[in-house]
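Input.
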Amino acid sequence: MRFLWIAWLGCGAVAATVVAAVVSPWWWCAAVPLLALAALGVADLLQTRHSVLRNYPVLGHLRFALEGIRPELQQYFIERNVDGRPFDRDTRSIVYERAKGTDAEEPFGTELDLYGSGREFLVPSMAPVAVPEHPPRVLVGGPDCTRPYGMSLLNVSAMSFGSLSANAVLALNTGAALGGFAHDTGEGGLSEYHLRPGGDLVWEIGTGYFGCRTEDGDFDPGLFAEKAAHPHVKCVSLKLSQGAKPGIGGVLPGSKVDAEIARVRGVPQGRTVVSPPYHRVFSTPRELVRFIGRMRGLAGGKPTGFKLCVGSRRQFLAVCKAMLEEGVTPDFIVVDGAEGGTGAAPLEFADHVGLPLTEGLMTVHNALVGSGLRERIRIGASGKVATGSDLVKRLIQGADYTNAARAMMFAVGCIQAQRCHTNTCPVGVATQDPRRARALHVGDKSQRVRRYQEATVKSALQIMAAMGVREPSQLRPHMLQRRLDPQTIRSYADIHSWLAPGQLLQDAPEAWARDWDEADPDRFTV
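Output.
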């Protein structure tokens, strides 16, 4: 019906034109508007810049009219975030403008409340330096890795084929190939849409072991090794938990599980797929570390790591102890903040379970530093990373690189319509309906992904240069400050404790001593 009425409109325009020419010229009053609307509908169907108009010809212009008249209305009614906590309008505007390649600068000053508690500030230098000509890369690969990978400062975070349409995955991976950054597959398996464009991949394995599972749902080492050997797969990652819903598995509605999704994931067609909340391949920190080493061996020495939303500091310290005792370390750890989004999650989990990215990131960074393991392991950060300032803040808090999901979805046309779980996404991003997915033009949206990533990394480098920093390794906690109340500002160096290399092994500070002493590499104790 979204397209049929355009045909009716065209027929009505032709009929009115014939009547106007034969019966009465008064009919031109109806014929002209009908002809104009029919022409507009055809133009909307053929254009590639706006997915909304490709799926909703003519009617889609109401959205843009609403945006032009009152952006706040659009923010509330149309672009609510999928987990109920929207990006602020300025952040979304930055992403959209960078993706389109237009200037994101605005006249006049900031509209932010600079005196509100919790507001953070990056510290500029009186002696700024030149912006590097080429963005730095982060070498991912510890002593047991034989095929290290140069990671970009900003990459595509985990989003599965199945939750995203084939065209959305193609656009993301093509953008990654054009821009030279990595694309995390998410836990939904390794599809042809990930492989066809040639972008660098981080293949993520979740609790369902999709793409490398046996018929009864166990991990299949032979199938994993076969797929991990693909030249486009640069790293492999084991997903322990996700920021938006830590402790529960993912859900893919049966309406989205068509024959292709079923083949990629190795599951029955048309049946809702619920990932288990726990892994079968390990049950203790020591077994987790051993499995990471096994994955790296099966992957031919490619960088191997895991992703988690941090909860118990004691449990993570138990993993650190297991690394030390087993002599096995991951090449990278991705910290996913509780503010991370998803297509569907229980509201209680989204709002109340897991540490936000700031606290989780600093916990992992300090634990690895204090254990003497930080130099062997790179840390990625994901969770509402969208702008250059976000990127720089995460580097200061302990990350080596960042991943973005929601911002990358914006770049391919997502308008946060909150229809991800219904298979009726209006812009073809989160749907398996081919009639809706066609609205997402891969050629146009892949360029938007490339432009957004390039501009955001450039912004981060400009900010660092303004801070007097030539490379990320020179960033320090005192360069990020937070307003505690209207009269008090303190730097991260003063607000938080930062461990020295190997400090937990020698004389653990009082704030860490109990958790370190009670951390057990042979069990996950809260």
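Residues 442-466 form the longest helix (25 residues).
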